[in-house]
Structure to design on (51 residues):
């Protein structure tokens, strides 16, 4: 699975989001636990649309 880190993260202390927006993880521990975020994609879509 592919992960993305914020382009604003210069220190390396960042949360990464899975490309399908279904999980988050700590960028310092890529093999560590993941937080499932099944509604993240819908939240981002609604925020962008101004709902």
């Amino acid at each position: 699975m592919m992960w993305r880190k914020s382009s604003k993260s210069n220190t390396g202390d960042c949360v990464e989001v899975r490309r399908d927006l279904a999980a988050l993880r700590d960028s310092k521990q890529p093999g560590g636990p993941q937080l499932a975020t099944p509604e993240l994609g819908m939240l981002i879509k609604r925020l962008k649309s101004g709902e």
